[in-house]
Amino acid sequence: MTAQLPLRARDLERRGLRDRVYELILEMLLEGDVEPGSRLSIDTLAKQLDVSPTPVREAMVQLERTGLVTREALKGYRVAPPLGREQLSELFDARLMLELEATRLAAPRAQPVLDELRRAHRLHQACADRVVEAMEQGPDVPVRMTQDYFEADGAFHRAIFAAAGNRYLIGMHEDLGAMTHRLRQAVLRGTSDVREAHAEHGRVLAALERGDADAATAAMRAHIEGVRTRSVRDETP
Amino acid sequence: MTAQLPLRARDLERRGLRDRVYELILEMLLEGDVEPGSRLSIDTLAKQLDVSPTPVREAMVQLERTGLVTREALKGYRVAPPLGREQLSELFDARLMLELEATRLAAPRAQPVLDELRRAHRLHQACADRVVEAMEQGPDVPVRMTQDYFEADGAFHRAIFAAAGNRYLIGMHEDLGAMTHRLRQAVLRGTSDVREAHAEHGRVLAALERGDADAATAAMRAHIEGVRTRSVRDETP
DNA sequence: GGACCCCACTTCCTATAGGATTTCCGGAGT
DNA sequence: ACTCCGGAAATCCTATAGGAAGTGGGGTCC
Q1: Nearest C-alpha of chain B: how many angstroms from A86?
Q2: Facing A91 at nearest CB: one of B90, B105, B168
Q3: Residues whose CB falls within 7 A of nucleic chain C?
Q4: Would you place residue B5 in the very low, low, confident or very high pLDDT band (cuts 50, 70, 90)?
Q5: Alpha carbons B148 and B128: distance in angstroms, whole number
Q6: Between A194 and A192, residue with greater pLDDT
Q7: Which part of chain B has CATH 1.20.120.530?
Q8: CATH 1.10.10.10 domain extents, chain B
Q9: CATH assignment of A10-79?
Q10: pLDDT at residue B97 in the model
Q11: Interface pTM (ipTM) of the complex?
């Protein structure tokens, strides 16, 4: 019998360089400190991350899928331009369809994940409280804090998709995830938005606890439309 | 002013090696003559296609997304195993959601693409006729013929998504495209299937011509469920 | 006879190098 | 002042080479 913990620790490292490079670049993009339209040179990135261009190249192919970067053959990659009005509308339509279907499928089989949903909801609340508090203190909200808030928000939705139990729906939701993330960053403006979003989640959760599928989907529709409304309100002041 | 046609002809070639490699491997996989689970060696593929491993590697990352190949870090790529019963069911659920939403969105704005839909429908019919004729002659239907049939079938659906005008829906539909293709190959069994599928398309088209959104979505639902029924009927004889 | 180990082969993964193309910038011409 | 052009630097793209890990087979020991 050999030691098991060292082996498992090694397995965590055993993911190939490509995946780590992918996560690093993704994180960099989601931080939001890169100018849309600016070039993403493969060689430069490789030097910055201290790896060879090949894994960077593979990661970029993967990133292309998320819509965060665009590629022009023989001309390289660029940071994707910000979402236009029309694109935004389409994104909401697509997300509405996905979230409604996921809620519909999840409602009758939500029982096993109710605990997880409640936990995610409480975490969401805690993060929201901190964000609101920081907002009232001053205009500068720490990046870490908003990241946590987004993560908690996303976790709630992911739990619903997990309950729905359809791998293709989950995949589509993940695909939209990066775009949605960019969107959320633009939406987080006032304290009321945070409060409203949390309240809307609460109504979805309550309906799922009652096992009321119709109410749950209706609450989810209200939530997504609420986000849409707040989004366009911020878009054009 | 410089000559324009030569330049445009050159642009067609200007897609980088990666895209061409991707299409070649994709075509190879969709032909269906590769054993599920068999290994896809990068070096071997590179030698077969007479290119270096790098573009092959990029193409494989892209293929991984389609679900046709699976990757295990440091162990290479394999042809994805055939779809299980559960996976099949989830695929149908996801596709049903997409096609219904696309039909719903397309119905009020189908007018400009009706001609294209009718053309696709006629082509579908022509291909169906040829397939039926070949089936009645003998058990062996030429690959080329079935390919054309699938292409015509897919074109009809794509036209609806184009009319829907949501780029994310189109993207999701394309993502499922490869899986759906594998599915269709398994479904094409009897002459009645071909006839039924075409008739179901016809009812969708008729509803769209009348501008009746509810009837169109209902007809589309009937179509997808019809495919599902025929699929599981063939699955377990 | 079965299990274990060692070794050669294959394959993946990464790094480096070179050719082709694009981009950028300064200068000449109109 | 604007346009056009030419060359240099940066960049993409592809090819080749080598180290690291996995895979399979044969031999040996129990």
Answers
A1: 9
A2: B168
A3: A 16-18, 50-55, 74-75; B 14, 39-44, 53-54, 57, 73-77
A4: very low
A5: 9
A6: A194
A7: 85-235
A8: 13-79
A9: 1.10.10.10
A10: 98
A11: 0.87
Query: In this predicted model, what pLDDT tens digit does every residue of B159-195 receive, in sequence order?
Result: 999 999 999 999 999 999 888 888 777 666 667 788 8
Burial (CB count within 10 angstroms: exposed 0-12, middle 13-18, buried 19+), residue A184? middle
**Does the structure show a pLDDT above 50 at B104?**
yes
Residue A72 bridge partners (DSSP): A76
Q: Which two three-digit tokens encode residue B24?
A: 């070649």
Nucleotide nearest to B74 (CA to C1'): C12
Distance from CA(B77) to C1'(C6), angstroms, rounded: 28
Domain with CATH 1.10.10.10 in chain A: 10-79
pLDDT value of position A7: 34
Q: Decide: A173 and A102 in contact? Cβ < 8 Å.
A: yes
The answer to whether B173 and B127 are in contact (CB under 8 A) is: no
CA of B21 to C1' of D25 (A): 35
Task: Identify the CATH class of B85-235.
Answer: mainly alpha
Q: What is the pLDDT of residue B202?
A: 97
Fold of B13-79: Arc Repressor Mutant, subunit A (1.10.10)
Amino acid at B206: A
Nucleotide nearest to A11 (CA to C1'): D21
Q: Can you give the distance from the CA of residue A25 to the C1' of nucleotide D10 in angstroms?
A: 22
Point out the residue among A94, A101, A105 whose CB comes nearest to the CB of B166. Answer: A94
**Chain A 1-40, CB < 7 Å to strand D:** 14, 39-40
